[in-house]
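Note to self: the last two entries modelled the partners one at a time, which told us nothing about the interface. This time every component goes in together.
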Amino acid sequence: MAKGALIYRQKRATRVTHWIWAICLFFLLFSGLQIFNAYPSLHIGREAGFDYDNAALALGGVQNGDALQGVTRVLGHDFETTGVLGVSGGEVRGFPAALTMPSGQALATGRVIHFFFAWLLVGTLVVWLVASIVNGHIRALIPTLADLRRLPGDVADHVRLRFHHTRDYNVLQKFAYAGVLFVALPLMIATGLTMSPGFDAVAPWLLDLFGGRQTARTIHFVTMLALVGFFGVHMAMILLAGPLNEVRSIVTGWYRTDAGGEDDHAA
Amino acid sequence: MITRRNLLLGGAAAGLSGCTLLDGLTDDSGLRAFLQGAENLTMTAQRLIIGNSLAPEFTAADIRQGQHPNGSTGVDSDEYRAMRADGFASYSLQVTGLVERPLSIPYAQLTGLPARTQITRHDCVEGWSCIAKWMGVPLSVILDQARPLLNARFAVFNCFDAIEHGLGGDVLYYESIDMVDARHPQTILAWAMNDRALPVQNGAPLRLRVERQLGYKMAKYVRSIELVDSLAGIGAGRGSYWADRGYEWYAGI
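The predicted structure of the combined assembly is written out below.
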C-alpha cells in the first residue's frame, strides 16, 4: 500500500495516560490473582456459602490415590485442571505461581500492590477524562450515526484483515476503547469499592446494584477476564495492522495514514 | 509473521516472569513503604466521606448459615479452660491505660449493660463474607464508664488466644482501633451470636465488632482493653498482630 501522510494522531495526554494504565493493569491483574488465591472461590449473593452452595467458580485440589488433582468447578461442572488451576507446583493453590504477584502466597503484599495501582489507575483516569474533555479527544471515542452505518462494512473489513489507517478510529475501535474506558474500568472500580466494608457504609446502594458483596467480587473477576480478552485482541490488531506504525503513534503520537485518504489532503 | 509470533510469545513470557518482579516486596523496604502509603490515602479518603454512617444491616432472613470460624478457633490455656467450665462466670473484662477509672467488669455485669443487636456482614480479608446477628455492649458505653483521658487516641484489645506458637513463646492476639471507630454506634463487644451465647470458635466470651472494617480487626477472646496515646509500644509497633505482618492497620478496604 502506498504511503500517505504522517499525521500527529495521539496527543501527549492520551499517550502518557495510556502507558500508565498499561503499567497499572499489569500489576493489578497479577496482584489481583494473588488476592483471589487467598480464597479461590466466587459466589453469587451477599455471602460466601459454606453451609449451602452459591458458588459460581471454585478452584481446589482433591487427593486421588497418590496424586493431588486440581479441580475447577464452574457453575457446578467439574473440570480437571491439574498443573494450572487448583493444583500447581505440587500444592493446592488457585492460580499458579507464574500468574500471581508475588509468586508465592503473600496476600498482604498482593493487597499493597493492588491498592497502590488501583489508586494510580483512578487518578490517571480522572486526569485523562479532564484532559480529553478539554482537548476534544473524548469525541474521538463516541460512535456517531455515520459510524453505525459503516459498522457492517467495518466488521467485514476486520474479518478480511483489511485495515484502514486514518486519523479517526474506526467504529469497532471506538466500541472497544469506549467499552474499556466507560464500561469495564468504571465497573472494576465500582465492584472493587463494593467489596470495601468502609465504602459500603457510605454507598450501600452499590450492594443492591450488584446484588451483594460476593456477586460484586464475581463481577470484578469476570470483568478482569473481559479486560484480558481486550488486551489479547488489542495486541493482535497491533500486529496485524502494522506494529511499528501503531506503536509509534502511541509512543510519539505520529501515525502513517493510507495514501489517498482524506487525511492525505488535509496534510 | 513467524518473527512477529515469536515477539508476541517472548513478550508473554516476559510478562509471566514479571510476576517474580515484586517478590522482594514481602520484606520491609523503602519501596514497600512507598506502595503501602496508599493505605493512608485510603484511610484519609474513607474518613472524609464515611462520617458516622452505619455499615449495612440485614434481616433475620439473610442469616442462612453459621458464622464461619477463622483464625484462632479456641484457646489452649488452663486459665481459659477454667473460665469456660463455669460458663465464663469468672471472666472479667479489664479496662486499663489512659482512663480516669480503670474497670474490671464481671461477665454477668457486662451482659446486663445496655446492649445493641445488629445483623451484619463479616468480610474476611481472604475474600469471603458471612452474615450473622451480633449482640453486645457498645464500646462507647464502656468508655463512658472508664472516662478516657484527653490524650487517649487508640483502644488496644489484648486477647487470650495464642495466634502463634513461636520459639520465644506464644504470641497472643492483639488489635487496635482509633477513637473514631471506638465511638461508632455499631462498634460493640459482642457476647451473643445468632441468639445464643457467643460460641468458643467465634471468640467467647467477648469479641469486638468493627463493622466498617475487615474481620481481622474484630478481635476474639478479648481479655482487656487498654487506652493508649501511641501504638509504638504495641507488638512490633503497628498496633495489630496482622498489621505487624504486613496487612493494613486501617482495614476499611
